[in-house]
Design goal:
This protein is an all-alpha fold. It is built from 11 helices and 2 strands. The N and C termini lie far apart (72 Å).
């Protein structure tokens, strides 16, 4: 009888821990998805990887940090701070994404594929050092923008209010993005440009505007991710975009680069893998499990989980 009671206690305690890790993984995956969508949208349109995208995420977090700090000093209500900081982060990051496309990509539109790749890496390093000089190399405390919800109190030890806010926001963003891509004029133009850029031009689509719009949308999503994860972790510095960008790129490749559902699926798998590896093995092996998963996918399914293999003429 005592053995059975102890077994039940360990079982239920283990289930609580499992559920906690599961929701933690979903939270990680949701953030990766917001960033990975920018990678996969740009790749789907122009066939290149924007390696400065992680820095856009970082700039969004810093913008929200500065705006939220100033508004807090002047005593604005928390709801107003969240809304204004979020809008400022989205607008400012989108302007950076638009500028990066014009400076680092558009002049190299017809250059060899290696040229815009190197240009994007250079832009990434430039933005890192720009923020380093403008701010500091130290970690800065990010204000808590999401309060504890009263209805979450019974399960607060498993799922926090910030986790719930991240999950709900990510779902809303995904639904909105799906609607834009499938049912709006710019979304149809994006799909046409991704399918055949030359034919899209011939039927009257302004390809340059479509590419710029893709960078703007992707940057806006990264800014939302920057605001949410910075509030969740509680600190930021100039280097947060590098690792987040690498992880999001890994998620995009895992799901199938160029596939929007694939980016979401890959992000969730990566987030869950990291969470369970951290919880059941060690946090020291978090990145080992994540990138080992990527290696296995590239070996056995190079196009990703939902990606389609393409034939190229050589």
């Amino acid at each position: 009888m005592l053995y059975r009671c102890l077994l039940q206690i360990f079982f239920y305690a283990g289930m609580d821990y499992f559920i906690e890790l599961f929701f933690s993984g979903l939270t990680r995956g949701s953030i990766y998805a917001l960033i990975a969508l920018g990678y996969t949208m740009v790749y789907g349109i122009i066939g290149l990887i924007n390696f400065a995208h992680g820095e856009i995420y970082m700039i969004g977090a810093f913008t929200a940090f500065i705006v939220a700090t100033v508004l807090s000093i002047y005593g604005f209500p928390l709801v107003s701070i969240v809304v204004i900081a979020g809008i400022a982060a989205v607008v400012w990051s989108s302007s950076y994404g638009f500028t990066i496309e014009k400076i680092a990509y558009k002049p190299l539109r017809h250059a060899p594929r290696l040229s815009p790749l190197i240009s994007a890496i250079g832009m990434s390093i430039f933005l890192q050092n720009y923020v380093l000089l403008a701010q500091t190399s130290d970690f800065l405390p990010f204000p808590t923008l999401i309060p504890d919800f009263a209805f979450m109190e019974p399960v607060a030890h498993i799922v926090g209010s910030t986790d719930l806010a991240i999950l709900v926001t990510t779902v809303i963003v995904m639904v909105a993005l799906t609607f834009i891509i499938k049912f709006t004029k710019i979304g149809k133009a994006m799909r046409a440009t991704a399918q055949d850029r030359t034919m899209a031009t011939l039927v009257g689509i302004n390809v340059n505007n479509v590419i710029s719009a893709t960078f703007i949308v992707g940057s806006a999503l990264a800014a939302v991710g920057g605001l949410l994860i910075a509030s969740h972790i509680g600190q930021i510095n100039f280097y947060i975009g590098f690792l987040a960008g690498i992880k999001a790129f890994t998620a995009a490749v895992l799901g199938g680069i160029g596939s929007i559902p694939g980016a979401v699926l890959g992000s969730l798998i990566l987030g869950l893998t990291e969470s369970f590896a951290t919880g059941y093995v060690s946090s020291d092996y978090e990145d080992v499990f994540a990138f080992s998963l990527l290696v296995l996918i590239l070996i056995f399914k190079p196009s990703g989980l939902l990606g389609k293999a393409t034939n190229q003429k050589v």
